[in-house]
Amino acid sequence: MSARLDRSLAAALVSGARPYIFAVIAVLALLPLLNLIVPPSSAFYLPDFAIKLVGKWLCFAILALAIDLVWGYVGILSLGHGAFFTLGGYAMGMHLMREIGDRGVYKNPVLPDFMVFLNWKELPWYWWGFDSFPFALLMIVLVPGLLAFVFGWLAFRSRITGVYLSIITQAMTYALMLAFFRNDMGFGGNNGLTDFKDLLGFALNTDATRAGLYWTSLAALILTFLLCRFVIRSKTGRVLTAVRDAESRVRFLGYSVTNYKLFAFVLSAMIAGVAGALYVPQVGIINPSEFSPGASIEAVIWVAVGGRGSLVGAILGAFVVNGVKSWLTSTAPEYWLFILGSLFVIVTLFLPRGLIGLFGRANGKPKITKPTLANLSAMLGTPAPAGAPAAGAKEPRP
Q1: What is the number of domains present in the chain?
Q2: 33-51 mean pLDDT
Q3: Using only C-alpha atoms, what is the Rg of the chain?
Q4: 143: nearest Cα among 260, 269, 288, 292
């Protein structure tokens, strides 16, 4: 798929769907009021679990944007983004555990309950500082970003691409899952971190706090969308899209493909960490099962169903797939995995641009331009190499 196809379809979608997008945002913003203001006897009342459920979907939509940034616009199929999501969640969970203090079961003002139960004598060094909310915020983006930087530098520097890169990202999250399941790691073992009390002095079990977390997640989703949109519309974004379409040719034009890939991968990991941090106080628990490769694969399916290479499509896919999952797991849980796999196959075969591609068909089929050296140079705003055919012309066969 060419960059011209992406830009023309995205422009048509954004310009035509902008009123609907604003309407959806307004509806999402008003949902908590149906829980806070409307009496329970009213038909318009939304129960607490519904607000928590949609709040989770908002966090999943942020994760979908993170995956779409690297897969849809750079061509990096990561099957390990659940690791970055979970690391951000653990960073928030560690802060919430330190906030409990002496209100825990064992009344220890420093050690969390699970450490007291396991006879830990002192707080591990990697828990230091998590009693400070600003420090926790820093770790939420720094830890996933640092892991992505080290992993990406080693992988991209070695020019590992395609299915091989996908496999090692999956191996990374699986290794982390096994490590965090161990009790001697100091992260709660298979039980994880739970029994949170409050955040910034606000009790987590109140309707007002629940609504505040919901609105914070919605604001974070909007800001993440705008950030990703800014990146992909910048010159850096044009280079990233060119890397996806013709990596070797972009390298021939003099760009450092490794650095551009690393930038997108690290930024995406930080976004995923923020999504995980917002997810934890709303669900009340974080455990190693979130590291499972299946969770990362499911997140990739959200993007594929919605339409990779489209930010709106990634959000749509996260809401649609998780909405269907919530319905099916309560009515026919034994069929959910079969339906999820079938949905992915159907979209791959019949809707290669995902659900969002259905809206683009009304605007006609955009012209696809072959990524020749001249076309890439024109897109990136750089001089074409000497002897290259003009933009739009066919390159001679070797």
Answers
A1: 1
A2: 89
A3: 23
A4: 269
Report d(CA 22, CA 187) in Å as an integer. Answer: 41
Of 203, 272, 367, 251, which Cα lies nearest the Cα of 62?
Answer: 272
**pLDDT at residue 286 in the model:** 94
According to DSSP, the β-strands at 202-203 and 285-286 are unpaired
Residue 366 lies in a domain: yes
Question: What's the distance, CA 375 to chain centroid?
Answer: 31
86 assigned to some structural domain: yes
Instruction: For the chain, report the end-to-end CA distance as a whole number of angstroms.
Output: 23
Whether 144 contacts 87, CB under 8 Å: yes
Query: Would you say residue 385 lies in a domain?
Result: no
Give the contacts of 384 (CB within 8 A, at least 6 positions apart).
373, 374, 377, 378, 391
How many angstroms separate the Cα of 371 from the Cα of each of 3, 242, 246, 368?
Answer: 9, 8, 7, 9
Any idea what DSSP says for residue 72? T
> Which pTM does this prediction carry?
0.88
pLDDT digits (tens, 9 = 90+) for 168-221: 999 999 999 999 999 889 999 999 999 999 999 899 999 999 999 999 999 999
9 — pLDDT class (breaks 50, 70, 90): very low
Q: Is 289 helix (H, G, I), strand (E, B) or coil?
A: helix
* Residue 360 predicted with pLDDT over 90: no
Distance CA(114)–CA(117), nearest Å, equals 5
Is residue 182 left, alpha or beta, with left meaning phi > 0 and alpha meaning psi from -120 to 50?
A: beta
Q: Is residue 272 within 8 Å of 79, Cβ to Cβ?
A: no
Each residue's pLDDT tens digit, 142-158? 999 999 999 999 999 99
In this structure, is residue 326 part of a structural domain?
yes
Q: How far apart are CA 152 and CA 263, in angstroms?
A: 9
Look up the domain containing 221 and give its range. 3-380
